[in-house]
Write a structure and sequence with these properties.
Blueprint (H helix, E strand, L loop, with lengths): L1 E12 L2 E13 L4 E5 L6 H9 L6 E6 L2 E2 L10 E4 L11 H12 L5 H14 L15 H12 L6 E5 L7 H16 L4 E5 L11 E6 L2 E6 L4 H5 L7 H5 L4 H11 L25 H18 L1 H20 L19 H41 L7 H9 L4 H30 L7 H25 L3 H19 L10 H4 L4 H13 L5 H7 L8 H24 L4
Parallel strand pairs: 3-8, 3-9, 6-7, 7-8
Antiparallel strand pairs: 1-2, 1-4, 4-5, 9-10
Helix pairs in contact: 2-3, 2-4, 2-9, 4-5, 9-13, 10-11, 10-13, 11-13, 11-14, 11-15, 11-17, 11-18, 13-14, 14-15, 14-17, 14-19, 15-17, 17-19
The structure holds adenosine-5'-triphosphate and magnesium ion.
């Protein structure tokens, strides 16, 4: 039994309090199929979100089977909430989407158990014959069925649906409404459907009419036209606009006793519902990781882009070093040479140091910058691109830690592949590159990892994938000029910017590790104006950037963004 008692909801806009839901009183018995109708903007979605607990009411009480929801909220398995937007990944099939939802939301111990739940749901929702179809090819009606199917995985006692029939042709609309009707009857479930459509009202047990935030009717469909003194339901909206909302509300308060459907279970004790156990964090992590790889491997454009970068970028770097890196000239002790010859020789030695140093520094910086580009491609849209689905899954019990861990594992594989291949390929093509390859590989993994982590943090904190990509591109774009590797920065700027520039630390650390016996002077020659730091310090800074990115990812993912 769902009860709303004097529920109000207001928001503060420009220091004005706007009441969106006013004094709502509702009583809905188990097994009822309820429509909330009303003209656009009257507060239907707002009311549904208040019942679901997404928005907290400003005043009033909502009780569920006698339980005050402000004190003891729904468990995720008690409630199903079907939002207006599509909540499934396009690349997955219907079956895969349902199986993932089962794994994410309930504690299931075996494959057989998952199969039983899956088979029951596809039968219930009429999706059996098309269960192997990908979401992207489904019709509007089939997508809505899938949205309902995904909510049935926990067999919820209350199913709240927002406009699941909008935009459908009349036949599909009737099919989906009939499906919701049967879902309310095949168990003790309450199904509430928000709609502005006035078709098929006869299938509902209760119609709630909202007008400008007020409940102006709650009763059976059969008495609806009588109450509004109209001949057909289509005439209700034009009739509503003829009187003020307060007038309608007061009129309803006067006549409500004659219309209200009294609960069939009034006086009975609420049914004892066995709580379902939520999925463990580990199972959620495994289900998400599995799903991420499936989606990645099925997205041909993504694969092509990643492969293109993986293969082409190291070639681009290697081309510049194909002629090899010569050993720098050393200054011989020529006691018998005249002063001019000695000076000429000195100039040619420092020229050779400059050339060799520039080549090494350029190659390293090029490698680093291309890896930062790959990093932004790895993660700039990772969370922002699926934010609505993520928020929905979080609302249904997904742990933030499971979600972030699955992202870390997925992205780590990309980062390792890209960085190792970049380092090894360049080393094979330019074997004369000085220094220890394993040290350089560590630095390459760290620069790619830290930028991937920061871009993931950006993608968790931005409202849209477009905003997130743009910011990530700016971040990569500023790496080169602000690193000071190409043009020295003014002395007062570099201490402010360099700590923030991951590319500087990767470049600096790699060069420091390459000085060795022969190349110290060459590297010093190109880093006279922009000091480089010891390798250990650079590694610490890159690790700090990586941790900062993860922190940003955690705070951004935890904060609701709807
Ligand atoms: N966060 C918000 N800030 C300002 N106004 C809001 C906010 N949320 C809702 N509103 C306003 O509250 C009113 C009710 O919105 P709601 O989305 O509940 O309407 P609705 O009945 O679901 O409309 P529709 O049929 O078009 O979906 C609208 O006028 C809307 O602009
Ligand atoms: Mg709405």
């Amino acid at each position: 039994m769902l009860n709303l008692h004097k529920v109000n909801f207001s928001i503060n806009k420009d220091n004005d309090e706007i009441n969106l839901i006013k004094d709502a009183n509702l009583n809905i018995a188990q097994s009822s199929f309820v429509a909330i109708v009303g003209p656009s903007g009257c507060g239907k979605t707002t009311l549904l979100r208040i019942i679901a607990g997404i928005n907290a009411q400003t005043s009033g009480t909502i009780t569920w089977n006698g339980r005050n929801l402000s004190i003891d909220d729904f468990t995720p398995s008690e409630l199903g909430y079907v939002p207006q937007f599509s909540i499934a990944f396009e690349e997955l099939t219907i079956s895969e989407s349902i199986v993932t939802a089962i794994k994410l939301r309930s504690k299931v111990s075996s494959k057989e158990q998952i199969k039983i739940i899956h088979d029951r749901i596809i039968l219930q929702t009429g999706l059996k014959d098309i269960s192997n179809r990908r979401v992207k090819v489904l019709s509007g009606g089939q997508k809505r069925r899938l949205s309902l199917a995904l909510e049935l995985v926990t067999d919820p006692e209350l199913l709240l649906c927002d406009e699941v029939t909008s935009g459908l042709d009349p036949k599909s609309e009737r099919e989906v409404v009939s499906l919701m009707h049967s879902l309310s009857k095949d168990s003790d479930r309450i199904v509430v459907n928000v709609t502005h459509s006035l078709n098929h009202l006869e299938l509902y047990d209760i119609i709630i009419v909202l007008y400008e935030g007020f409940v102006v009717y709650q009763g059976p469909p059969s008495k609806l036209t009588h109450y509004f003194s109209v001949t057909s339901a289509e005439d209700i909206y034009p009739t509503l606009s003829k009187r003020g909302e307060l007038d309608w509300h007061n009129s309803w308060l006067k006549h409500r006793e004659n219309y209200i459907v009294h609960s069939k279970v009034t006086g009975q004790l609420p049914k004892l519902i066995k709580p379902r156990l939520p999925a463990s964090g580990l199972n959620q992590f495994l289900a998400l990781t599995n799903r991420r790889w499936k989606i990645f491997l099925r997205d041909k454009m993504q694969i092509l882009l990643h492969l293109g970068m993986l293969l082409l970028f190291p070639i681009l770097v290697a081309i510049f070093g194909l002629d090899g890196i010569n050993q720098p000239k050393t200054m011989p002790i020529q006691t018998n040479a005249n002063l001019i010859d000695q000076l000429n020789y000195k100039v040619s030695v420092s020229k050779s140091h400059m050339e060799i140093g520039s080549l090494i520094s350029g190659l390293i910086m090029f490698q680093v910058i291309l890896l930062t580009l790959m990093a932004s491609n790895n993660s700039a849209r990772e969370i922002a691109g699926e934010r609505e689905i993520y928020e929905k899954e979080k609302f249904s019990g997904l742990r933030v830690s499971s979600y972030i861990s699955s992202k870390i594992i997925f992205l780590s594989v990309l980062v390792l592949l890209q960085s190792l291949w970049m380092g090894v390929f360049v080393q094979i093509c330019v074997p004369s590159l000085p220094g220890d390859i394993s040290t350089r590989l560590i630095v390459l993994i760290l620069i790619n990892g830290s930028m991937t982590s920061i871009c993931l943090g950006i993608s968790a904190s931005m409202k849209s994938p477009e905003q997130s990509s743009l910011l990530a591109i700016y971040l990569v774009g500023f790496q080169l000029p602000l690193s000071g590797a190409i043009l020295a920065l003014p002395e007062w700027i570099s201490p402010l910017t360099q700590p923030l520039i991951s590319a500087y630390w990767a470049w600096s650390g790699s060069l420091d590790s390459m000085k060795g016996e022969y190349f110290g002077q060459s590297i010093d020659a190109v880093t006279q104006q922009t000091n480089i730091q010891p390798l250990n310090i650079c590694i610490v800074w890159l690790c700090l950037h990586l941790i900062f990115g993860l922190f940003l990812t955690y705070t951004g993912s935890k904060k609701p963004q709807i």
